[in-house]
Task: structure prediction
Amino acid sequence: MSQDDNNMEEYPTEIHDYLTAFEKSLGSVDEMLKTMMSVSRSDLLQKLDPLEQAKLDLVSVYTLNSMFWVYLATQGINPKEHPVKQELERIRTYMNKVKEIADKKKASKLDKGAASRFVKNALWEPKAENEHISKTPAKGKKRQRD
Result:
């Protein structure tokens, strides 16, 4: 009997595909962590603006707490009843705040001078009283003769 046959007997065959996908995901996470750990945090933060630093910190702490969530689940502890759930919600709140700030930063800036000229030229302005009188009579009215 080979090693693979031995492993297949240890768990139900229905979950083999799920476990294979999980193993690949763990490999991806491991590679990303190795990449992140290869660069000094201070060097990385110096290259980022404050908003990007906040995003990096939030993603890092969210990932760490998510991994702890998975760990709790593997230990038979319901993570929904653990304080990690509130921590993840708190982090999500801050992620939304950072997203709002980034969206505001991306929003186009209003050139007040150009906007006022645009509105002024787009609006109809009535002419002075003496300029308003037309030499041609209005439709439907008879011309009065003196």
